[in-house]
Every structure is written in structure tokens, then in C-alpha cells.
Amino acid sequence: MVRTVFIKKSTLDHITCYCMKKKPYEACGFLLGSHEAETIYADEFIPVTNIAENAVKSFVMDPAVMIPIVTNHSSHVKPIVGVLHSHPTAASIPSAEDLYAAWLHIPSHWIVSLQHDECYDIQVFHYYRNNFDDSCRTGSSDKISYAALTLKIFDY
Description:
It is built from three helices and nine strands. It has 156 residues and is α/β, with parallel strands linked by helices. It has a seven-stranded mixed beta barrel with strand order 1-3-2-4-5-6-9. The protein is globular, with a radius of gyration of 15 Å. About 4% of the residues have low confidence.
């Protein structure tokens, strides 16, 4: 399981500028880079247009932009290592809707909170299917859980 995520400083700057520019709407996109054992290296952010009907509280990626990226039919040759969206008025914690729409095959999920005007908070998570439901002690195929990942910034 992934435990640590490194992000290039210029990529982090790109993300925060893009998310703030899109506020009060949720911003979304993909992070590209590399994934080695328990570590992710993110060095490129690709914004994707949010076409949700209620883009203030949710995001739906524009298929015309998203599909070429996820099927590797775009000009980007690096693998997807993260999916990102912002919470313009909420904390950077996965909502029930975030977990319902989880892309489990993507190793990291980034949430940028913009709830405080002068600063942002970015948290990175690994989503996974929890096949054991403690409440009834039986398997559950639809419960998604998450674990926080350590985020470190690099500048080389």
C-alpha cells in the first residue's frame, strides 16, 4: 500500500492556483508521475473541466478531456498517480459522495480545501475496498475506506 507521496513544488503551485481560480466551484484533475512500491512521485497536474450540474458542491469530469487521459490516448505519457478535486467550502476530508465515486485503481486521491480565504489545505488519501464490515461481521463489497498518506514537497 502507498504510504508517502512526493510532489514537485511547481506542480503544487499549479494545483493551488488552479483550484483558487475555480472557486466557488470544485476544481478537478489528474496527477501524473511514477509509483514505486510504497511511494508516489507526482510531477505533473492536468486540470479537467468540471461539468457537474451543481459544481459548487460536486465534480464530474468532462469525458472529452478525461477519457484520453485515462486511456493513455493523450499527449501525456506518464501514468496517472492521483485524482484531485477541491472542496471550496469544506475540509479536505473525503465526503460520502467522494467515497461513492472512488476510483480504486488510482493509487492516491487528493482533496484541496479552500474553506479559509487566505490559505488552503491539501490532504492525500489512499481509497480501498473494505470487504469486512465490523457491524455485522460479514463481508461487504461496497464499503470504501481510506487512509491518509504523508505528503512531502520536492523541488528538483
